[in-house]
Specification:
five-stranded mixed β-sheet, binds zinc ion, 8 helices
Length: 315
């Protein structure tokens, strides 16, 4: 029984695997039928969830998975790679380089790090007054606990094929374009564009009504990438790295978050009131109902410290 994700048909031969919050799978994935071959995009945070993804892909398309694409180097998009033993793994060359340089931590070190995160999150949940934040933290704790348990069995599998700007994968029924406009959410973020179906698989560059993790990103580049997606790619459906299947409207929502939240925090830092004062006010509109609201706290603290330092230098 698959408790990790739900499958949605997005277009003919294109399925989104949208994760169940708190199941440990964490990042969304997708399946594409090329006719005579099958592609999977991203592989979740857990190998056991990826097993179900591979099974679903084979069952839906009638073919083994020939290619697996990793959109970026965050673990919730590639820890399941090891399940796809007969597939070619594809990423940008920068994503591959990053993962090889980073290496795999020893299981014990990795687990003790995760245990510290869980303890920290549990403290946060106890202190949280808002029920949306409590739910987000409960899910995050469950996701991290599932990963902690899976760690001894996770083997890092990096790409066997890489590209720097663009790569086209051809099948008998359709061709798909893998492309990157550079780094925004991470140093290198790839997307999968299925032009004939009008679908974009955006990785974590575009989420649907979900707070993004800003901490490893470059916010100016990120905003520019989203504008470029809007200008250059024709699609009506978007499969996000987190959140439900959406459409082009998520481009503007994401853009307003990436520009609006830094501006909000800049004013907060300039106000002289401490971080806790501002965080107690909760998530500002229009992002109040977005999922994973604990990310907002992290984004806020990260930005607040940056702005505070800037103001101190100026004074
Ligand atoms: Zn992610």
């Amino acid at each position: 029984m698959n408790r990790y994700f739900n499958l949605f048909t997005v277009a003919e031969g294109v399925w989104a695997a949208i994760v169940v919050p708190g199941s440990g799978a964490l990042g969304n994935a997708a399946i594409i039928d090329l006719g005579d071959s099958t592609v999977v995009v991203d592989t979740f945070s857990l190998p056991q969830a990826a097993e179900f993804l591979r099974g679903a892909a084979e069952e839906l398309t009638g073919n083994p998975v020939k290619y697996v694409i990793n959109t970026h180097y965050h673990g919730d998009h590639h820890y399941g790679n090891q399940v796809f033993t007969d597939s070619q793994i594809i990423s940008t060359d920068m994503t591959r380089d990053f993962l090889i340089k980073e290496g795999t931590p020893e299981a014990e070190v990795w687990q003790s790090g995760l245990q510290q995160v869980v303890t920290f999150l549990e403290k946060g949940r106890k202190a949280a007054k808002d029920s949306r934040l409590q739910t987000a933290l409960t899910n995050e704790i469950a996701d991290k606990a599932a990963l902690l348990e899976a760690v001894p069995g996770i083997r890092r599998v990096t790409a066997s094929l890489t590209f720097s700007d663009k790569m086209v994968v051809h099948g008998s029924a359709r061709s798909i374009t893998l492309l990157t406009f550079g780094g925004g959410h991470t140093e290198s973020d790839a997307m999968v564009y299925i032009e004939d179906a009008g679908v974009l698989i955006a990785g974590d560059l575009v989420l649907s009504r979900t707070h993004p993790a800003m901490l490893s990103g470059n916010l100016d580049n990120w905003a520019r990438i989203i504008e470029r997606i809007g200008r250059e790619l024709a699609f009506s459906k978007l499969i996000p790295g987190h959140g439900e299947v959406t459409d082009r409207s998520s481009l503007d929502e994401m853009l307003s978050y990436l520009t609006g939240i830094p501006e909000y925090v800049r004013q907060a830092a300039a106000s002289g009131e401490p971080e806790e004062y501002w965080l107690a006010r909760g998530v500002p509109a229009p992002f109040t109902e977005w999922e994973m609201s604990h990310m907002f706290d992290w984004n806020f603290r990260w930005l607040y410290q940056q702005f505070k330092q800037e103001f101190e230098v100026e004074q």
